[in-house]
Amino acid sequence: MSDKIDLYSDRGVLLKSDVDLSAVSPLKNAAMQRLISLTKRTVAVNLAGIEGALKTGKVAGGRRQIKGRELNYDVVANAGALADKIKALLQVAPGDDTNVKVLAGGKQLLVQIPTARVNAASEFVVGLTGAAAATTEALVQQFKVGIVEAPMVHASVWGEYPQTVGMSGGNVASVLNIPQNDEGLGFALRNVMANHLAAITKRNAMNAAALASIYEQIGEFEMGNAFGIFERHQLLGMAYQGLNANNMVYNCVKANGKTGTIGTVVQSTVAAALEDKVIKAGKKLPSGYVLYEANDVSKWNAYCAAGVLAATMVNCGSLRGAQAVSSTLLYFNDIIEKETALPGCDFGRVMGTAVGFSFFSHSIYGGGGPGVFNGNHVVTRHSRGFAIPCVAAAVALDAGTQMFTPEMTSGLVGAIYGEIKEFREPIVSVAEAV
Questions:
Q1: How far is the C-alpha of 71 from the C-alpha of 350, rounded, in Å?
Q2: C-alpha to C-alpha distance for 313 and 162, rounded to whole angstroms
Q3: Catalytic residue among 8, 215, 240, 365
Q4: Least confident among 72-76, 313-317, 404-408
Q5: Which helix (H) or strand (E) holds 17?
Q6: Which CATH class is domain 41-180?
Q7: 198, 199, 290, 408: which one has the fewest Cβ atoms less than 10 Å from its Cβ?
Q8: Where are the domains of the chain?
Q9: 365 is catalytic
Q10: pLDDT tens-digit profile of 209-224?
């Protein structure tokens, strides 16, 4: 791959110039590799939730409450002591990368299990199970819990597990879902809902899109979709859409933000592709309609990927609502295909994804807002990593119109993972690591 790109921040500031495309590959970029590691190692523990569950007897979610089994433990007040015990339990060797940090005045813990535990495991759930087990044991030690009370302590942490594998009603959370919920091989990092991404990046639309793009494209590598010519194809798309390569997304939004529409973003995208000689005018039909040809098919896809994100930010940003993202994904690509006679983003997969997405997010079915969708969802899994970054950006720009807001679904995850720069500011982190 001989491509060179310039990396710009979410504010349009040049971060690194003349960067080899391969330098932003998850196989080589240290920030991306750290992001993958931290994703598996980092878990949020809700101490305030544990204390409340024990005091009321309301454990394992739903309407479950066990009267007479209430336990009055001052969990939050003892956050520091619990953190020390959890770290000691998780640590494999003195001075390793185990990390336990008290947040929000003791209401929450950021727990990062040591890499040695990840390396000694076959699945990424070791972060979740390790943090849950260590927290349970720390509570038992700190409050001298007896054999009769111990099951309530376990339930306050683990939730409904092992009756169900999803830890329903538990008070430990990972940005990753459980493997049983993955739609197929390699979907783990694509199984992060858009609300989480918006919350982690503090509702910064471009960083939310970047985090989504990195996760999605790592997933594409993991599931075998980025070999041979497709490796360059996927990396170009991630660079231009997710990492604001050559400042394309930023410039397009800035040019169209005040009075633009989906159609004007299409015009900007096609004009940029022509100017940069990514496409050229081909056969002209008797009607005057011009059939364009792509000089570089993968770079044309990357320009379309950047364009559809810019169109999402222009359209959903002006609306202050995420609901328009599915129709933006659909009609940007529909218009650009009619304008050029070339395939839209992801060879039509983004447009196809949008059709089902519109129906399931807010049409006749109306099962949930865009924020609860992810790249693993049966409706939105079909694009090879180019749809969900737009959804994450739209959710970040939403002004509270969803039934399920990031604050409602992702408060704990956002507070914990948002403490870490690689998650909160992925564009800058990746650029610094090239």
A1: 51
A2: 42
A3: 365
A4: 404-408
A5: strand 14-20
A6: alpha beta
A7: 408
A8: 4-38+203-433, 41-180
A9: yes
A10: 999 999 999 999 999 9
- Which amino acid, residue 112? Q
Residue 366 scores a pLDDT above 70: no
Q: 172 — phi, psi (to 5°)?
A: -120, 145
DSSP letters, 209-275, are HHHHHHHHHHHHHHTT--STHHHHHHHHHIIIIIS-BTTHHHHHHHHHTTT--HHHHHHHHHHHHHH
What is the spatial distance between Cα 216 and Cα 189, in angstroms, rounded to a whole number?
Answer: 7
Phi-psi group of 104: left, alpha or beta (phi > 0 → left; psi -120 to 50 → alpha; rest → beta): left
Tokens 């992801």: give the residue: 346
User: Do residues 119 and 93 touch, judged by C-beta distance below 8 A?
Assistant: no
CA dist 100 → 236, 352, 394, 416 (Å): 37, 44, 33, 11
> Residue holding tokens 């933000």?
257
Note the residue count of the chain.
434
The matching CATH number, chosen from 1.10.3720.10, 1.10.510.10, 1.20.840.10, 3.40.50.720, for 4-38+203-433 is 1.20.840.10
Separation of alpha carbons 285 and 99, rounded Å: 65
Confidence class of residue 9 from pLDDT cuts 50, 70 and 90?
Answer: very high
Q: DSSP states of 191-203 as a string?
A: ---HHHHHHHTTT
Query: What DSSP element (H or E) covers 108?
Result: strand 108-112
**pTM across the whole model:** 0.95
Predicted local confidence at residue 362, as pLDDT: 65
Of 93, 105, 89, 108, which is closest to residue 43 (Cα–Cα)?
A: 108
Structure tokens at 292: 């364009």
pLDDT computed for residue 365 by the predictor: 61
